[in-house]
Amino acid sequence: MDMPEADGLLLADKAFMALRELLTGGQLRAGQFVSMPDLVKTIGLPIAPVREAVKRAESAALVRILPKRGVAVMEATPDLVRDCFHLRTILDQEGARELARNRAGAGLGELRERHQRVLDEARAGITPSLQREAMAVDWVLHTTLADALGNDSVREIYSRNRDRISVIQHSRPLLPDRIIPAMEEHLAILDAIASGDEQRAAGEVRKHFRQTLRWWGIIV
């Protein structure tokens, strides 16, 4: 039996969107435990739809249900960090190849300018607002690479993996010493795409993956 609708959405859908926002926004952090009563209070919806939302979040590997205790947010273990970023890299490099093959670099000019602006400002001095902008522009590039494949199944997989990476990223602040090299690595990807060189574009994506893992203390 369906749960009551509210504002055109099932309460369970609203509860899941609220829970997802708590997780990807960092209000619930990797490895954190939260009881069901506290979660119901935070989300502000009845317990039935919240329970359904938690089940959906568990199926997406964002949380783990602890029977009669509550909910544990996924932990940012080295293996999970490696797996999530590796999956993103597999899809990103195929997207980079596709964009290079189609000579799509000209259409990415605005994105390149945005990266260059963040890089220039970071070299002058990093502020909290610039850190937020750096994270936003980071995701724009990665989403652009995945979308280049034009595959709805890939988009679904990518979206779920993005949620897990978002939880992982909030387990460790984006330190200033990562912003500059990350922007430089992204610009190298964009320049390789603009050159039309598929192998180079894919190679720059893999370099970015290795540097990201090193920043997390994982050597590959």
Describe the structure.
- With 220 residues, the chain is mainly alpha-helical.
- It folds into 2 domains: 5-73, Arc Repressor Mutant, subunit A, CATH 1.10.10.10; 78-215, Up-down Bundle (Four Helix Bundle (Hemerythrin (Met), subunit A)).
- The chain is 69% helix and 6% strand.
- It has 9 helices and 5 strands; from the N terminus they run E-E-H-E-H-H-E-E-H-H-H-H-H-H.
- Strands 3-5-4 form a 3-stranded antiparallel sheet. A two-stranded antiparallel sheet has the order 1-2.
- Helix 4 packs across helix 7 (152-169) and helix 4 (78-101) runs antiparallel to helix 9.
General form: globular
The ordered string of helix (H) and strand (E) elements is EEHEHHEEHHHHHH
Q: Extract low-pLDDT stretches.
A: none
Mean pLDDT over the full residue set: 92
How many β strands by DSSP?
5
Sheet with most strands: 3 strands, antiparallel
Strand order of the largest sheet: 3-5-4
Task: Report Rg.
Answer: 19 Å
Our count of helices gives: 9
User: In which range does the helix fraction lie?
Assistant: 55-70%
CATH-derived architecture of the largest domain: Up-down Bundle
- Range of strand content: 5-15%
Oligomeric state of the chains in view: single chain
- CATH superfamily membership of the largest domain: GntR ligand-binding domain-like
- Quickly give the structural class: mainly alpha
Q: How many discrete domains?
A: 2
Q: Would you tell me which CATH topology of the largest domain applies? A: Four Helix Bundle (Hemerythrin (Met), subunit A)
Distance between the termini: 49 Å
